[in-house]
Amino acid sequence: MFQKILIANRGEIALRVLRAAKELGIPTVVVHSTADADAMHVRLADESVCIGPPPSRDSYLNIHQIVAACEITGADAVHPGYGFLSENAKFADILAAHNITFIGPTGDHIRVMGDKIEAKRTAKRLGIPVVPGSDGAVSDEIEAKRIAAEIGYPVIIKASAGGGGRGMKVARNEADLQMALATARSEAGAAFGDDAVYIEKYLEKPRHIEIQVMGDGHGQGIHLGERDCSLQRRHQKVWEEALSPALNAEERKRIGDVCANAVAELGYSGAGTIEFLYEDGGFYFIEMNTRLQVEHPVTEAITGIDLVHEQIRVASGAGLSVTQDEVRFDGHAIECRINAEDPRTFAPSPGTISHFHTPGGLGIRVDSGVYSGYRIPPYYDSLIGKLIVHGRNRVECMMRLRRALDEFVVDGIQTTLPLFRDLVGNADIANGNYDIHWLEKYLAKEQ
Ligand code: MV4
After folding, report:
1. Fold of the domain spanning 207-446
2. Which of 277, 287, 288, 295 has most ligand 1 atoms within 8 Å of CB, for mutation?
3. Where are the domains of the chain?
4. pTM
5. Residues pairing with 341 in the sheet
């Protein structure tokens, strides 16, 4: 097992990883910027190292400072959390070259999945169903028109270096295609320094359903069911739940087994998420995330498996603690992302939290790094906590969620809590009747 784990992150995820390391009896060191000197992760860690000024690029993204912090403190493993350097293949390679374990997949696995064309080609080879479209990059308009005519309009042009909704253009007919292709290509070149684009059939009303997977790096792979993350605004997830209200047990097993087998065949190591669009009973691969995700607690709630324990075990060579047969799905879980934002405009609302009171009771989990009197720095993303609620079924989970939202107090700043109090009383949400466009339409009506 590791001597000491360095946590290269901040906020609630730094605490989440700290807790797992403590349970495993592994000393921790955190790095932080000058803006985070009084953050909870710094207080709770065994050691801390200030690695730079507030801007992320000078601190949480500064690879040399983080490697130096490992050498100064004797950390032999790094957990990257999510965001920041968690999907940076070069970081994983540099750590490996310094004999420090990156708690995550290999640099090569990160690289393959970071290139969306390569990711889709790999998914297809592994038997994962993909969206009909070009077999790789499209070179010119003639080729784009030929493929669009084959798969039928509408189509979507995506940047190979994009992902998470960046660099996409929809074309509803051949007249649109020329402009969509040119715009997507030039935006991709400017934003990512790579103008490779590909084309897909545009799905009109899908759900976003993702499968949680874990691999041991030696040919064992398991899946831990799905999360439904269809409720998003501007490609930011707002509400996630497991299991999906849209799937039955047979569909779950079928897509889950495909994903587990793919991870095994890849020799993938650690936690990953295989993202799909789901429409009319069909699954269509879009991307794979090679990190722990913000919404991992809903999977932990329904499986009882600590995903960070598993990540640390696998990275240390101890393998997974569970086999697929031992994974059971128990009840239902919902996560609400509490952001320091105006609940209508979603404008960031940094400032001092005058009073912070979290709900409790059976089935309630709050992951947060903030406290009464904490000043939220303006430099980082606005997630200040997550409310995760578990019940024996979706109805019980929703009852508990409504009650927990009533108890939650965050004074001094604006948060997204009022939005969740509205959503929990909405009939479509109560019925699980929503797709990826539902929330944006709801918010447009509310204004
Ligand atoms: C799509 C799509 C429809 N058809 N691909 C957006 C994020 C990126 N990961 C993929 N995205 C989409 N890809 C095809 N072929 C619609 C979206 C999309 C979306 C997907 C998931 C969650 C929210 C979304 C909001 C708008 C568009």
Report:
1. D-amino Acid Aminotransferase; Chain A, domain 1 (3.30.470)
2. 277
3. 5-103, 132-201, 207-446
4. 0.98
5. 348
